[in-house]
Specification:
Elements lengths: L28 H61 L8 H26 L10
Helix pairs in contact: 1-2
Length: about 130
């Protein structure tokens, strides 16, 4: 149904309108300066954000490293107690059942590898060559 059939007037045809004579299609120097200033401010803020991200990533990477080292140390001490507990403690030997020891070793391995995977993905996100963010 056309606009005239529905009772509405036809939309105006703006294709014949042109710029008045003497109007320059190029932006004025003040406009170009303002655009450049705003673009520089945006780039500066983006650079500050990336610098802050890098500093935070370094901080969290070291925290995860220390967490992993402490975790491995605790498991090592636990395994040493399991192996030498009766020698060290004599009257009150340290003894865990075999399934508990195996579960501890297995879960520790999975947890350490999982944390390292998460940290690596956080520190080095997968970005395409043309991504800006």
């Amino acid at each position: 149904m056309s606009p005239t059939e529905s009772g509405l007037p036809a939309p105006p045809d703006f294709s014949r309108i042109s710029s008045p004579p003497g109007v320059n299609p190029e932006p004025e120097p003040e406009t170009r300066l303002e655009r450049t200033t705003l673009e520089n401010a945006r780039l500066k803020l983006e650079l500050e954000g990336l610098s802050q991200d890098t500093a935070e990533r370094k901080k969290y990477a070291s925290l995860f490293f220390y967490l992993s080292c402490a975790w491995i140390l605790i498991i090592t001490v636990l395994l040493l107690f399991q192996g030498f507990g009766s020698f060290w403690f004599g009257k009150f030997p340290f003894k865990l059942s075999e399934p508990i020891v195996l579960a501890t070793i297995g879960s520790t391995t999975v947890n350490i590898l999982g944390i390292l995977y998460i940290v690596a993905n956080y520190l080095f996100p997968k970005k395409g060559p043309f991504d800006k963010t």
